[in-house]
Amino acid sequence: MTKIFARLMKDESGATAIEYGLIAALVSVALIAGAGALGDSLNNTFSTLGSKMEAEVPK
């Protein structure tokens, strides 16, 4: 039983998989936050542009 426990303590393949999973989760959170910020910025830019174009159209 001690040999099995010692072998499990030396096995790092599960730890590596968990580390890759955490890195992937962190990257996905960063991408989602960046896309949200970019979307808000684009929305404000196009709203401003639309308002300026609407003001220039003769009625």
Helix fraction bin: over 70%
Q: How would you describe the shape?
A: rod-shaped
Q: What's the gyration radius in Å? A: 26 Å
- Percent of residues in β-strands: under 5%
| Beta strand count | 0
Low-confidence stretches: none
Could you tell me the mean pLDDT? 87
Q: So how many helices?
A: 2
| Main sheet record | none
Order of helices and strands: HH
Transmembrane segments: 20-39
Keywords: Membrane, Transmembrane, Transmembrane helix
InterPro entries: Flp_Fap (IPR007047)
Protein name: PilA pilus assembly protein
Q: How is the topology of this model organized?
A:
Elements: H1 2-10, H2 13-56
Summarize the structure.
The protein is an all-alpha fold. It is 90% helix and 0% strand. The mean pLDDT is 87.
Can you describe this structure?
The chain is built from 2 helices and no strands. It has helices at residues 2-10, 13-56. The mean pLDDT is 87. Pfam families: Flp_Fap.
Features:
59 residues, mainly alpha, 90% helix, rod-shaped, transmembrane, transmembrane helix, membrane, Flp_Fap
